[in-house]
Amino acid sequence: MSGIFYTRDYLKAVDQRDVNNCESGCLFIDRSTCDYEMFELLIIQIIMISAILLIYMSENNLAPPTSDQEGLELYNAI
Question: What whole-number distance in Å separates Cα of residue 33 and Cα of residue 44?
């Protein structure tokens, strides 16, 4: 592919044993970097904030945005 776009090819061959050695020495972290209780509290807070915003929008006759401009206007109104 590099020849098509007139770019330089930096691809280097690697021995699979070297890759395995590197992987064995790596520490892989889960998608959530905090403990389960903190993650659960964060999710609960997000749900509560969403519910409050929906109530606010309903009481003030605000419709969900359908474009980025409407999203900015809603954000500024809230």
Answer: 17
CA dihedral of residues 12, 16, 18, 23 (deg, nearest 10):
110
* Three-state helix/strand/coil letters over 9-44: CCCCCCCHHHHHHHHHCCCCCCCCCCCHHHHHHHHH
Question: What residues does each domain of the chain span?
Answer: 31-77
Tokens encoding 27:
């520490």
pLDDT, one tens digit per residue, over 37-75 is: 777 888 889 899 888 888 888 898 888 888 888 888 888
Amino acid at 50: S
